[in-house]
Design brief:
Helix content: 10-25%
Number of strands: 10
Radius of gyration: 14 Å
Oligomer: single chain
Order of helices and strands: EEEHEEEEEEEH
CATH architecture: Beta Complex
Structural class: mainly beta
Number of domains: 1
Number of helices: 2
């Protein structure tokens, strides 16, 4: 069994807070229309490695295109801290930029993913997550 590191994070206003357990220090940087605009860096974790600590009532959801991905965000400050991705519907995609800590980005390898051409490339993303 691999040791898990614990991180906490949340939205800008602090209404939404979560805890995540991590054992892989790789995140995906997607170039699809929504991820590019949000600056989302995807840290995919299994559902059991994610805990919402507070703020369920502050969350709202945006869906588009296929409607499968549940893009949650804080309705107070608008920050997208995490969501349930279409690529991994039994997991959470946590925005690495929303984890606490000044040097958090330097701890992870950022891997480009061509999400603008999602259907042609999803097999590459799924093979990296296993």
């Amino acid at each position: 069994m691999t040791a898990l590191d614990t991180f906490e994070g949340g939205c800008h206003c602090g209404a939404v807070r979560f805890r995540v357990f991590v054992n892989k220090y790789k995140v995906d940087e997607c170039n699809c229309s929504i991820c590019l605009k949000k600056g989302f860096l995807h840290l995919i974790v299994p559902s059991e490695s994610f805990t919402l600590l507070q703020g369920a009532e502050a969350l709202t959801t945006y869906t588009f295109n296929t409607g499968v991905a549940q893009h949650t965000f804080c309705r107070i400050c608008g920050i997208h801290s995490f969501y349930i991705p279409r690529s991994h519907p039994d997991s959470f995609s946590v925005n690495l930029r929303c984890l606490d800590g000044d040097d958090i980005l330097s701890q992870f390898e950022i891997v480009p993913f061509d999400g603008a051409n999602w259907e042609q490339n999803i097999h590459k993303l799924n093979s990296r997550q296993s």
